[in-house]
Amino acid sequence: MLGPQDAGVLLPRELSSYPALPGHSLFDILLGRVQLEPFNAIATAIFLLAVAHTFVAARFTKRAHGLQREHDEQAKALGRLPRPSVAAEILHFLGEVEVIFGLWAIVLLIAMISYAGWSTSKHYFNQTVNYTEPLFVVVIMALAASRPIIGLAETSLRKVANLGHATPAAWWVSILIIGPILGSFITEPAAMTISALLLARQFYGLNPTSRLKYATLGLLFVNVSIGGTLTHFAAPPVLMVARIWDWDWSFMFLHFGWRALLSVGLATGVYFFIFRRELRGLAGRASIDDVNNSEQPPDPDVPLPVPAWITVVHLAFVAWTVVTAHYPPFFVGGFLIFLGFTKATAAYQTPADLRSPLLVGFFLAGLVIHGGLQAWWLGPVLSRLSETPLFLAATLLTAFNDNALITYLATLVPTLDESLKLAVVAGAVTGGGLTVIANAPNPAGQSILSRFFGGAIAPLGLLGGAVVPTVIAAVIFGLR
Predict the structure, then answer these.
(1) DSSP strand E in 164-232: where?
(2) N or C terminus: fewer CB in 10 A for the chain?
(3) What is the pTM of this model?
């Protein structure tokens, strides 16, 4: 056993249960909290191992492909039909970024049971952790990926792209500017899903260079992270604080909205200038999917054109989900009705793909499980910083934790004045594109686009692609 089995101890401990220790250094405060509750160090160590796992996930995937090739060659040499290699499948599973935090949550559960017993562990996983956001992302991703919604988004963006003669470059600019801004109204997860699906069809399918692929991915993640800040209900890190701090539409636009519009437009313009020749060179290329499907016979089950009334019903389901985003019984119930509706109108639909939404939901559930045990050190770090250092710290910490968790922890610090509240939220949304775990919608984009990166997106590649737009956002959001 790792520690005392005390059925009366709940994890994590209330922050108010730790001594204030005024005048002590940050190191002394954190050391004192570990001494008072040793499980703090255990939970954070497991979390850091999970973060490290995300950075080496691509190596697991690469090795899995190598093992499968070797297995296939051995089968052929013996005159057998190739079959999936168990070892390769296990490695491929370990290389799925979406399952990493869930896997390490199992380690956390075992450690917690060993330390504090089943009762405490059950209370934390079942009653302390809030799974509303993961559930919401699953539902909104599935809705946003439906054929009527994608068709409407593509038709709307096509009108904008037609202003640039619907070239790949025109599509690229339209999707990366308008898509993220739509996130302020249809929520960031929906905006990420639609933008990633359209980029897959209109850009990534043309097989751009690896450098341009990662630059586009980084730009997409950063733009979506900041593009949802025109309103108070669409971006997860804003949702965490808007009600508590009484932030409304006008407050958001005055302090964040115009900065988001400027940042998205400027960052996209800078990358367009840098990659203008490569983007123009994509014109006339055949899509990878078109080439792969060129020899396929026509599908007799191609769905009929979508009537306007079906699109309106789908939009109503999206609106219901957004309005009831904080109440799982309502939006999950609505989603079940939606599935029945798509079955009844199957002639106009494509089969619902729930794999990506479920994987992303699993990813976020694992993240909030781990993140809920990090307040013991994040709180003291945030509370001891002035405005500019707090902005920079929130930006960097977001790369290693979901930005909604960063802002939520800020609400637990009663001494934050208005300028510090603005700084922590600005930093959280600014750093939301640096890693997959930095912003809740990022796993959705990764899940949709990973096939264009050999099945696994390299964390350093994403980081490199996100640096320039992050710096631009930092300058615009950091200036007060």
Answers:
(1) none
(2) N
(3) 0.77
CB atoms within 10 A of CB 310: 18
d(CA 461, CA 354): 27
Interval 225-241: pLDDT, tens: 999 999 887 888 888 78
Structure tokens at 44: 């954070």
The mean per-residue pLDDT over the stretch 291-299 comes to 49
Residue type, 185: F
Residue 289, pLDDT score? 59
Distance CA 233, CA 255 (A): 15
Q: Is the pLDDT of residue 337 over 70?
A: yes
Question: Which of 97, 94, 86, 88 is closest to 66 using CA atoms?
Answer: 88
Over residues 359-371, the mean pLDDT reads 85
The residues, any chain, with a CB within 8 Å of residue 222's CB and separated by 6 or more, are 267, 432, 433, 466, 469, 470, 473
Which whole-number Å values give the CA distances from 480 to 61, 230, 254, 403, in the listed order? 44, 17, 12, 21
Q: Which two tokens stand for residue 103?
A: 């896997």
Instruction: Report whether pLDDT(294) > 80.
Output: no
Give the CA-trace dihedral at 3, 5, 10, 15, to 10 degrees.
-30
* Under 8 Å between Cβ of 350 and 310: no
E strand or H helix that includes residue 451: none
Among the ranges given (38-47, 161-170, 363-372), the one the predictor scored with the smallest mean pLDDT: 363-372
Quote the tokens at residue 388. 């500019």
Rounded-to-integer distance, Cα 29 and Cα 208, Å: 50
> Which run of H or E residues covers position 157?
helix 147-161
Q: Round to whole Å and give the CA distance between 50 and 43.
A: 11
| Top-confidence range, 79-88, 218-227, 379-388 | 218-227
* Domain residue spans of the chain: 40-128, 162-168+175-291+354-478
d(C-alpha 81, C-alpha 97), whole Å: 30
Residue tagged 């799974």 (tokens): 131
Residue type, 329: P
Tokens 């005390």 sit at which residue? 6
Give the length of the chain: 480
